[in-house]
């Protein structure tokens, strides 16, 4: 089911929200919630996230438990399933203070099987859960124009609606139980990872052939070979700008989730496997913390070319 454009969803009463994970995506999403007048208490494992958050008027929480105290909703935007588990069930975990009946919204990209099991665990503790991974990147997070692919009960959707309306332009309801949202995100990450790797290969191929890479970008941007990732990531390559918006290591993780899920389903995914190896090569060459567009450096090293345009 498609739940239309979120600007049509009326904002309900302002909520008390716990938020964990103030990285590139979480910083923008939490700021959006704050801008809508919600009372947001946020925690991040990195102390350097504290000053930018409190400068906006946000409340800093020393632990996940402190962030969740008295909250009607707890939002998680951490990196991995292991971090989700630690935030909820670890020492000073959020569930020690999150009131029963509150909704846990997991925006992190994690395996569908993990979120299915997490939904069952949270039901036993008396909490609602919405499996709600996002797409759109850090810029969309700041603008509140993310796409959310979510699954959960009608009650969980109802509790999460005001929060989703603040961070997303579109919300897709893809199932009534946790797990389906993450399954759809896995498909998205399969495509995104392959498209970034393909864009890198294409631009490096053009450079090897002696084509002006900026001209190549303009041409392909107006041809059938274009993709969202080509349009978005190739400019990073042309400028030689690898400041991380989404790091190489993220796609090492996410394409690993794709391949693990494919094994569970006995589904062949050779293109995802090849893309995964390229991101692993980039990470093992020291580029893991750089922007995911840095996968092009694998091709630059192998082909002896430089993709960045003259003057970059």
For the biggest sheet, the summary is: 6 strands, parallel
Q: Termini distance?
A: 45 Å
On the 0 to 100 scale, the average pLDDT is 94
- Write down the overall geometry: globular
Binned strand content:
5-15%
Number of alpha- plus pi-helical segments:
13
Approximate helicity band: 40-55%
Counting structural domains, the number is 2
Structural class: alpha/beta
Strand arrangement, major sheet: 4-3-2-5-6-7
What do you see in this structure?
This protein is α/β, with parallel strands linked by helices and 312 residues long. It has helices at 24-35, 50-55, 64-68, 81-89, 112-124, 137-143, 154-167, 180-208, 213-220, 228-239, 248-265, 270-287, 296-303, and strands at residues 2-5, 16-20, 39-43, 59-60, 73-76, 103-106, 128-131, 134-135, 146-151, 168-175. It has a six-stranded parallel beta sheet, sandwiched between helices. Strand 3 (39-43), helix 2 and strand 4 form a beta-alpha-beta unit. Helix 8 (180-208) packs across helix 11 (248-265) and helix 11 (248-265) runs antiparallel to helix 12 (270-287). It is globular and about 60 Å long. The relative contact order is 0.11.
What is the compact description of this entry?
By secondary structure, this protein is α/β, with parallel strands linked by helices. It contains 13 helices and 10 strands.
Task: Describe the secondary-structure layout.
Elements: E1 2-5, E2 16-20, H1 24-35, E3 39-43, H2 50-55, E4 59-60, H3 64-68, E5 73-76, H4 81-89, E6 103-106, H5 112-124, E7 128-131, E8 134-135, H6 137-143, E9 146-151, H7 154-167, E10 168-175, H8 180-208, H9 213-220, H10 228-239, H11 248-265, H12 270-287, H13 296-303
């Amino acid at each position: 089911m498609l739940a239309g454009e979120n600007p049509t969803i009326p904002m309900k009463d302002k909520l008390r929200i716990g938020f964990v994970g103030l990285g590139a995506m979480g910083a923008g999403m939490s700021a959006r919630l704050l801008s809508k007048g919600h009372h947001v208490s946020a925690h991040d494992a990195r102390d350097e996230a504290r000053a930018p958050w409190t400068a906006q008027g946000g409340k800093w929480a020393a632990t996940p438990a402190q962030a969740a105290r008295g909250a009607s909703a707890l939002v998680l935007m951490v990196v991995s399933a292991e971090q989700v588990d630690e935030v909820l069930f670890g020492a000073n975990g959020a569930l020690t203070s999150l009131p029963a009946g509150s909704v846990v919204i997991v925006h992190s990209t994690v395996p569908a099987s993990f979120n299915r099991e997490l939904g069952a665990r949270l039901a036993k503790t008396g909490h609602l859960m919405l499996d709600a991974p996002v797409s759109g990147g850090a810029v969309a997070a700041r603008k509140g124009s993310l796409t959310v692919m979510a699954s959960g009960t009608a009650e969980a959707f109802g509790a999460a609606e005001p929060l989703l309306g603040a961070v997303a332009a579109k919300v897709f309801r893809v199932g009534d139980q946790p797990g389906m949202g993450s399954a759809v995100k896995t498909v998205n990450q399969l495509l995104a990872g392959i498209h970034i790797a393909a864009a890198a290969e294409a631009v490096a191929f053009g450079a090897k052939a002696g084509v002006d890479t900026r001209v190549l970008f303009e041409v392909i941007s107006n041809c059938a070979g274009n993709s969202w990732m080509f349009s978005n990531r190739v400019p990073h390559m042309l400028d030689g700008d690898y400041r991380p918006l989404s790091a190489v290591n993220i796609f090492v993780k996410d394409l690993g989730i794709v391949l693990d899920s494919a094994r569970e389903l006995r589904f062949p995914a050779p293109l995802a496997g090849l893309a995964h190896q390229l991101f692993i090569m980039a990470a093992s060459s020291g580029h893991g913390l750089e922007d995911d567009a840095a996968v092009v450096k694998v091709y630059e090293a192998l082909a002896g070319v430089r993709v960045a345009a003259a003057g970059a």
